[in-house]
């Protein structure tokens, strides 16, 4: 299948038909392409089409996607795929894909970069199957064309980013050493871009390209330094660090050119984010002050970065204090905060003085924990994603999450002063709320700050196991959490759901620390909250209830069969009713709570067996109907807990020995 104009036109026609709204035409074109992919010359034909200027943009995009998928699935022989690309076709693609990546539009470059990454993982530098690659990249790095330079750096990043996740082996280090042949040109490019930034400080269009180039260089720096600090980087670290320092301290006139984008992070801040991530890598892995006598026992540690550390603490600190709280700055803020957290946790915490702590709390912690409009929208419009982040440990990528990590880091070496500063802010926020209940956002921030301050260690299954001794959990609960929960009634259960979710999260996190007497008070309140129309509120109530049923005092469950029995039927009634809400149709947290109740209730299950069996079989019937319609379950965990619950019900009925109940259960099933 030679790349003739006729074949290129035929391929373009088929690719166009795959976008047709007519299913017959679309399926026919897909079948033709599926047959063509095994033909010799097809990979090169696809690559030529992507690089051609004549086909429409959507045709070239479809071709780039097809090429990426073809290389990902068939470059390496696999039992799961029906064929692999021939050596002749591989050689043809490798001969042209780098140059093609230089010339295609920016929208297509990610697909070719991913294809290159797949090829490099298989062929570079293994047995020198692609000896032409490095010389070609070196030549491109000498280009004066900014587009060629950016495209080349994207390719190098695509090659090197695997070093971040790969296990350290001799083969991997040999490959890294091969790529380090590019270092001299990378550093020269870095230095020339820094000079251009100063020369073109008022030209936004040129700065855009320069910042994109410098971002890629910082990412490649991260990739190549992740496994260890290579000697060439160690020898030239001062040059790299001076450049990073310059880029974190750009003039206000330059920053002003990049503050007009409200949708996404501008190229300037993307670059600074990449630099902060590189600094975090060094702060986390490579800074330490050790005696020479001790160095032999800690061979992986490097002192090379420590002389730059104080400078970058000031740089990153200044960056954070002037950074907006808008959503688009979150990833930059997260990278900067993680760097500071690493320094606070490490041996260089003495860079921070009490005045720094006060400023961090006032200018980073408090603003970082305030709820924003985007958070409120997420709570209302994406409740399942919100809960997954909040309940299942995904909050560390959010502004609030990394801010909580910063508070934890401050407490490692400065626990008493940090506690005092944070408690002052907490009291101030709570006083605002008590004076005016419409200022619920102040209490929301206070709860988050208190949780971050109080928790020193926790496990996912067992909850909090170590508490900051400078805070009083029970007193806080009694003064600021319980009164709001006791004010909940059937009439106002859905009022202010965000604050209610905060209160429930407090209860969930500190379930081990609250006295047993609090459980008896909370059970009726949780039962009311299960009736909330808000998906997050009734889910958090179910989570609280489920986790409280697992707490033990020594080896004795804090809530046993006798304590649960009076509330068993009301709880089950409201839990199953919550499943009727659209957002909770397959809510695994609710069904897990039902399962936990069955395990605790034991023989008391017999009294509610009819209710349980009826509800469970109804759900299973709907599941079977969905399978008949080829509709897969949205949440397998939900159905897992159904069967666990059903097994528990059957077990208790059989143990009770009531023949009539067993017969009735068999009839329902």
State the share of residues found in helices, binned by percent.
55-70%
Largest sheet, in brief, is: 2 strands, antiparallel
CA-based shape = globular
Gyration radius (Cα, Å) is 30 Å
What's the topology here?
Layout: H1 5-17, H2 23-36, H3 42-51, H4 57-74, H5 87-103, H6 109-123, H7 133-141, H8 146-160, H9 170-179, H10 183-199, H11 204-225, H12 231-235, H13 237-248, H14 252-256, H15 267-285, H16 292-295, H17 306-321, H18 330-345, H19 354-369, H20 373-381, H21 383-391, H22 399-435, H23 440-454, E1 455-459, E2 463-467, H24 473-486, H25 497-509, H26 516-529, H27 535-548, E3 552-553, E4 556-557, H28 561-564, H29 568-578, H30 588-601, H31 609-628, H32 636-656, H33 659-668
Antiparallel strand pairs: 1-2, 3-4
Helix pairs in contact: 1-2, 1-3, 3-4, 3-5, 4-6, 5-6, 5-8, 6-8, 8-11, 10-11, 10-13, 11-15, 13-17, 15-18, 17-18, 18-22, 19-22, 22-23, 23-25, 24-25, 25-27, 26-27, 27-30, 29-30, 30-32, 31-32, 31-33
Structure, explained:
The chain has 669 residues and is an all-alpha fold. It is built from 33 helices and four strands. It has helices at 5-17, 23-36, 42-51, 57-74, 87-103, 109-123, 133-141, 146-160, 170-179, 183-199, 204-225, 231-235, 237-248, 252-256, 267-285, 292-295, 306-321, 330-345, 354-369, 373-381, 383-391, 399-435, 440-454, 473-486, 497-509, 516-529, 535-548, 561-564, 568-578, 588-601, 609-628, 636-656, 659-668, and strands at residues 455-459, 463-467, 552-553, 556-557. Helix 1 (5-17) crosses helix 3 (42-51), helix 13 (237-248) packs parallel to helix 17 (306-321) and helix 27 (535-548) runs parallel beside helix 30 (588-601). The chain is globular.
């Amino acid at each position: 299948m030679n790349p003739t104009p006729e074949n290129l036109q035929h391929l373009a026609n088929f690719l166009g038909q795959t976008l047709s709204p007519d299913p017959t035409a679309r399926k026919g074109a897909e079948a033709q392409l599926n047959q063509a992919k095994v033909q010799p010359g097809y990979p090169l034909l696809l690559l030529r089409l992507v690089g051609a200027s004549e086909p429409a943009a959507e045709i070239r995009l479809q071709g780039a996607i097809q090429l990426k998928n073809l290389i990902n699935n068939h470059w390496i022989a696999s039992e799961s795929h029906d064929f692999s690309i021939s050596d002749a076709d591989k050689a043809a693609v490798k001969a042209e894909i780098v140059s093609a990546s230089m010339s295609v539009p920016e929208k297509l470059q990610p697909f070719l970069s991913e294809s290159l990454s797949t090829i490099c993982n298989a062929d570079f530098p293994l047995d020198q199957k692609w000896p032409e690659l490095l010389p070609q990249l070196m030549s491109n790095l000498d280009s004066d064309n900014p587009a060629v330079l950016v495209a080349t750096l994207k390719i190098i990043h695509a090659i090197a980013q695997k070093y971040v996740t790969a296990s350290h082996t001799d083969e991997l280090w040999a490959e890294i050493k091969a790529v380090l042949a590019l270092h001299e040109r990378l550093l020269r490019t870095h230095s020339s871009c820094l000079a251009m930034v100063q020369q073109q400080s008022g030209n936004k269009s040129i700065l855009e390209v320069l910042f994109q180039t410098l971002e890629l260089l910082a990412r490649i720096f991260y990739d190549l330094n992740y496994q260890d600090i290579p000697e060439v980087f160690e020898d030239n670290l001062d040059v790299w660090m001076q450049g990073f320092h310059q880029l974190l301290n750009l003039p206000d006139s330059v920053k002003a050119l990049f503050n007009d984008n409200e949708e996404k992070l501008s190229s300037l801040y993307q670059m600074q984010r990449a630099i902060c991530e590189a600094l975090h890598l060094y702060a986390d892995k490579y800074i330490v002050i050790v005696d020479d006598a001790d160095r032999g026992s800690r061979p992986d540690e490097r002192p090379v970065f420590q002389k730059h550390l104080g400078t970058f603490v000031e740089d990153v600190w200044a960056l954070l204090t002037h950074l907006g709280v808008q959503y688009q700055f979150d990833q930059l803020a997260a990278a900067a905060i993680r760097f500071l957290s690493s320094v606070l946790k490490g041996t260089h915490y003495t860079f921070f003085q009490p005045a720094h702590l006060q400023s961090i709390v006032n200018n980073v912690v408090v603003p970082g924990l305030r709820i924003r409009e985007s958070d409120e929208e997420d709570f209302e419009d994406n409740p399942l994603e919100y809960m997954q982040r909040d309940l299942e440990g995904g909050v560390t990528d959010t502004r609030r999450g990394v801010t909580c990590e910063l508070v934890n880091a401050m407490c490692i070496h400065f626990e008493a002063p940090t506690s005092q500063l944070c408690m002052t802010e907490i009291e101030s926020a709570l006083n605002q709320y008590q004076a005016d209940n419409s200022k619920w956002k102040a209490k929301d921030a206070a709860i988050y700050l208190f949780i971050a301050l109080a928790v020193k260690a926790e496990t996912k299954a067992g909850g909090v196991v170590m508490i900051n001794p400078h805070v009083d959990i029970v007193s806080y609960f009694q003064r600021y959490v319980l009164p709001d929960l006791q004010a909940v009634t059937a009439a106002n259960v859905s009022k202010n759901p965000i604050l209610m979710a905060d209160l429930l999260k407090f209860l969930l996190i500190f379930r081990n620390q609250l006295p047993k007497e609090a459980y008896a008070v909370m059970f009726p309140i949780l039962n009311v909250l299960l009736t909330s129309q808000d998906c997050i509120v009734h889910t958090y109530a179910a989570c609280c209830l489920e986790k409280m049923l697992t707490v033990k005092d020594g080896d004795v469950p804090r809530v046993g069969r006798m304590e649960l029995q009076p509330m068993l039927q009301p709880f089950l009634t409201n839990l199953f009713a919550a499943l009727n809400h659209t957002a909770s149709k397959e809510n695994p947290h609710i069904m897990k709570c039902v399962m936990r109740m069955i395990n605790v209730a034991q023989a008391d299950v017999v009294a509610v067996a009819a209710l349980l069996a009826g509800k469970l079989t109804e759900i299973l019937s709907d599941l079977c109907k969905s399978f008949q319609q080829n509709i897969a379950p949205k949440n397998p965990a939900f159905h897992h807990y159904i069967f666990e619950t059903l097994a528990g019900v059957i077990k208790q009925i059989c143990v009770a020995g009531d023949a009539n109940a067993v017969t009735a259960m068999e009839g329902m099933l």
